[in-house]
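Aggregate trends can hide what the representation actually does to any particular protein. The sequence in question and its C-alpha cells are set out directly beneath this paragraph.
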Amino acid sequence: MVKIQKLYSGQLVITIPKTLADYEGLDKGMEVEFKKHKNGFLLEVKK
C-alpha cells in the first residue's frame, strides 16, 4: 500500500512498499515524477 505522510515541516512524503521498490530498482533519494493519466497517475523514474 502506498502512503502519503505529512512531516512536521509540512512537506508531504510518499512511502511505497519495499517489494515494489526492489522490483523497480528504486533506492533512497531517487527522484520520480508523477504524470496525470485518464485512469489515475503514471510514475516515471528519473535516475
